[in-house]
Amino acid sequence: MMQNKKPVILIVDDVPKNIQVLGTLLAKFKCELAVAMNGQQALDTVEKVKPDLILLDVMMPIMDGHETCRRLKSNEATKDIPVIFLSAKTETEDIVEGFKLGAVDYVTKPFIGKELAARVKTHLTLRQTQQTLSEEVHSKNKFFSIMSHDLRGAFGIITNFVQLIQEGGDFLTNEEKEELLNDIQTTSANTLDLLENLLKWARSQTGAIKFSPEKLMLGCIFDEINRNHTNIAQAKEIKISSALKEDVEVYGDRNMVLLILRNLVSNAIKFTPKGGQITIAAEKTNDEVKISVKDTGIGIEADKLNQLFSIDSKTTSTGTANEQGHGLGLVLCKEFVKINKGEIGLESTPSQGTTVWFTLPTQPLENS
């Protein structure tokens, strides 16, 4: 059920036989089970292991199910955990009371195994969907907060530089004016790059970007990337070379593949010092091609590697020539690689360099 971990189900019942029956029934879900014999034990267990679903008996000693549910729903940390009441009390007012307390379902004893299993499956699926949506909303809210901060900062720098030129025109030397104009140009170019990536990412999230896979020859793709980055690389005396021994055929959306490689090569140039080397290579297997961009740059610390493709992580750094980065490029690469049915990864050693790779299929893709 859960993608990242097994779901945890807490069974709360004071009858050992009932717990045994429920445990056998729930084994099919490949879940982890926690057990409590009364309401107080259940509350203590929830503090240690936050379950994805609670099956809660009503009539128990020490603390009954109604009071247990009331306390769970009044606690900010546990109020969203779905609760299914299991009870021999079948009167309408008992069932209504259960729902008033915040239960998502009410199953009467003796229960039918298939019916209970179906309800458990439904509520675990709903729980997973709720958590996924909550995580996505949180990530995207944080992402847009980061982007708005970067944009405000960039436009603030441009505004300040323009103001310096306007107000200090009589006091600035020509060299100082030229330096400020160069700074404005660089900041404007970086901001435009950020906006373009942001717009492409937003369109990818809404499905507005048309996916048009076709047969691609990597030799031609590599040549185009090399031509587009020649001037920037030459300015830092960085050599870009291809390790492609023979032309390789892949399938993917041409514009997306070009954008992925442009971002990867731009990053490599940004974080490679003067006189460095960048190598674009491709390794063919049975059903895919692994494309890599390897540099001799400054590398990345191990604790940052897992954050680089995350939308809500602020892990950008300044390039070796003080180039500004915004961290959106790799996020966009990940999105487009996924659309093209591939995978992406990264290996890096501080002070020695970084290799970013992604895969593309060698068989035709369907438009989606």
UniProtKB/TrEMBL annotation:
<dbReference type="InterPro" id="IPR036097">
    <property type="entry name" value="HisK_dim/P_sf"/>
</dbReference>
<feature type="domain" description="Response regulatory">
    <location>
        <begin position="8"/>
        <end position="124"/>
    </location>
</feature>
<dbReference type="InterPro" id="IPR005467">
    <property type="entry name" value="His_kinase_dom"/>
</dbReference>
<dbReference type="InterPro" id="IPR003594">
    <property type="entry name" value="HATPase_dom"/>
</dbReference>
<dbReference type="GO" id="GO:0016301">
    <property type="term" value="F:kinase activity"/>
</dbReference>
<dbReference type="InterPro" id="IPR004358">
    <property type="entry name" value="Sig_transdc_His_kin-like_C"/>
</dbReference>
<dbReference type="InterPro" id="IPR036890">
    <property type="entry name" value="HATPase_C_sf"/>
</dbReference>
<keyword id="KW-0808">Transferase</keyword>
<keyword id="KW-0597">Phosphoprotein</keyword>
<dbReference type="InterPro" id="IPR011006">
    <property type="entry name" value="CheY-like_superfamily"/>
</dbReference>
<dbReference type="InterPro" id="IPR003661">
    <property type="entry name" value="HisK_dim/P_dom"/>
</dbReference>
<dbReference type="InterPro" id="IPR001789">
    <property type="entry name" value="Sig_transdc_resp-reg_receiver"/>
</dbReference>
<dbReference type="Pfam" id="PF00512">
    <property type="entry name" value="HisKA"/>
</dbReference>
<feature type="domain" description="Histidine kinase">
    <location>
        <begin position="146"/>
        <end position="364"/>
    </location>
</feature>
<dbReference type="Pfam" id="PF00072">
    <property type="entry name" value="Response_reg"/>
</dbReference>
<keyword id="KW-0418">Kinase</keyword>
<feature type="modified residue" description="4-aspartylphosphate">
    <location>
        <position position="57"/>
    </location>
</feature>
<protein>
    <recommendedName>
        <fullName>histidine kinase</fullName>
        <ecNumber>2.7.13.3</ecNumber>
    </recommendedName>
</protein>
<dbReference type="Pfam" id="PF02518">
    <property type="entry name" value="HATPase_c"/>
</dbReference>
